[in-house]
Amino acid sequence: AQDYLVKGQMDEVLLRRAVRYAMERKRVERALRDSEAFYQSLVESLPQYIYRKDAQGRFTFANRRFCVELGRTFQEIVGHTDYDFFPAELAEKYQADDQRVMTAGKVFEAVEEHTPPGGEKEYVQVVKSPVFDAQGKIIGTQGIFWDVTARVRGEEKLKKAHTDLARSREDLLRTLADLQRSHSRFKEAQQQMVEMEKMQTVGQMAAGIAHEVKNPLAVIRMGMDDQAGLCQRLDQRHPRHARRGTAHGAHLHQETHSGRGPAEPRSPPNPDVSRGRAGAGHGDRRHRHGHSAGQAGTGV
User: Fold this and answer.
1) Count of domains in the chain?
2) Distance CA 250, CA 231 (A)
3) Is the residue at 246 inside a domain?
4) Which of 4, 219, 241, 295 is 20 to 30 Å from 259 by CA-CA measure?
5) Contact partners, residue 126, CB within 8 Å, separation at least 6
6) pLDDT, tens digit, for every residue of 264-291?
7) 3-class secondary structure for the chain?
8) Tally of CA atoms within 13 A in the half-sphere of 244 that contains its CB
């Protein structure tokens, strides 16, 4: 309205037009302020870090959380680049991501390392998108990120646990295979022990049988020893009859002590029969002698 008044044209139509223009302008300005206030309220109430940059990578906006994260005021951030706040390698990566977003014109999302000034390394989930002007031209980037360090650490622990579990499974399979081999060897050794026990049992049975066999032989040997002594005594009393029995007893004694069983015993000579035979011969001789004497007497 002031532009029209300067020209000095004060007709009613022009005045009305100027008033309507001024009112429309104020309405637009009020709507713009309301929109900015709404946007400001939105970005300030979100728990994420929000910023905006121009095509040269200079900050044009930052919410309060972002300012607190960097430890700077809004005025200290606007107009500066990532190189003013972050290590060189991170700043270079952030700038490369911004250029990728503006070149592709698409949203970029990733988990990135983030090290705030004076702080420790953490991980953030980043979403970056291009900023367009009224003509659809890309004039910069805007981004939002939030802390996901706990999630990343948990995923790392889970991955490590999975790796350890896989390694433990391999170790368990190897141990199981070793146990199976050991079990097979144990069964073989057990079978050998069973066979050895069988052989020992057979040996014990054989020893028992041998012992039972040796007992009668020992008795026989004792009898043979007694017989040998008896033969010696008989030999002293009746040399001729005892000599044959002594030889037979010595033979049995030798066979018994050599471990062989006694040979089938021979019937020893019967002294009564021998004496009978001897007496019979002697009687015959007496009979013949008497008969001769009788004959001789008769002749006398």
Assistant:
1) 1
2) 9
3) no
4) 241
5) 97, 108, 109, 110, 111, 112, 143, 144, 145
6) 545 555 544 444 444 444 444 444 444 4
7) CHHHHHCCCCCHHHHHHHHHHHHHHHHHHHHHHHHHHHHHHHHHHCCCEEEEEECCCCEEEECHHHHHHHCCCHHHHCCCCHHHCCCHHHHHHHHHHHHHHHHHCCCEEEEEEECCCCCCCEEEEEEEEEEECCCCCEEEEEEEEEECHHHHHHHHHHHHHHHHHHHHHHHHHHHHHHHHHHHHHHHHHHHHHHHHHHHHHHHHHHHHHHHHHHHHHHHHHHHHHHHHHHHHHHHHHCHHHHHHHHHHHHHHHHHHHCCCCCCCCCCCCCHHHHHHHHHHHHHHHHHHHHHHHHHHHHHC
8) 8
**Residue 54's domain is classified under what CATH number?**
3.30.450.20
Compute the C-alpha angle 148/149/150, nearest 5°. Answer: 95
pLDDT in tens, 142-196: 999 999 999 999 998 999 999 999 999 999 999 999 999 898 988 888 888 888 8
